[in-house]
Structure formats: structure tokens, C-alpha cells
Fold this sequence. Notes:
GO cellular component, one term: mitochondrial inner membrane
Family: Belongs to the complex I LYR family.
Shape: elongated
Largest sheet: none
Strand content: under 5%
Mean pLDDT: 91
Distance between the termini: 43 Å
Keywords: Acetylation, Electron transport, Membrane, Mitochondrion, Mitochondrion inner membrane, Phosphoprotein, Respiratory chain, Transport
Radius of gyration: 14 Å
Structural class: mainly alpha
Number of strands: 0
Low-confidence stretches: none
Membrane topology: Peripheral membrane protein
InterPro entries: Complex1_LYR_dom, Complex1_LYR_NDUFB9_LYRM3, NDUFB9
Helix content: over 70%
Amino acid sequence: MEWALRATQKERVRILYRRALKDTLNWAVHRHLFYHDADALRERFETNKNVEDIELIDRMIAAGEASYNKWRHPDPYIGI
């Protein structure tokens, strides 16, 4: 049963990372700024990739999702 929870957590982290990375483009419209912000975002995820405690991982994901929702761009750029 633990493997199912781990798979769900991995999926939630992947979705959170992709959403945050895409939203970074809304805040940093120039590529050189985006690359800097994307590196900082990646570093935040990389520092916690070896955490093993399932409950801690759930709390970290929830905190990350809350932070993403708080700082999400209010007027996202929609490209054609």
C-alpha cells in the first residue's frame, strides 16, 4: 500500500513543479530572468528529493501547493 501512496506523492510533486515552472514564465517574461528563476525553483525541489518520511512529504507537498496558490500570477500570459 505504501507504494501506491509514493506513486501518488510523486505525481503531485511532478504536477506542482510543472505548474510552478509554467507560472514562472508569467512573472519573468525575459528568458534570462526565467532561467534564473527556474534554477531557483529547481533547487527548492532538489533539496528535498531524498526525504523518506511519508507524512513529512505530504506536509511539504501541501505547503508547496498552498505557496503556489498564494503566489500564482493574477493575470497569466496566454500565448497563441
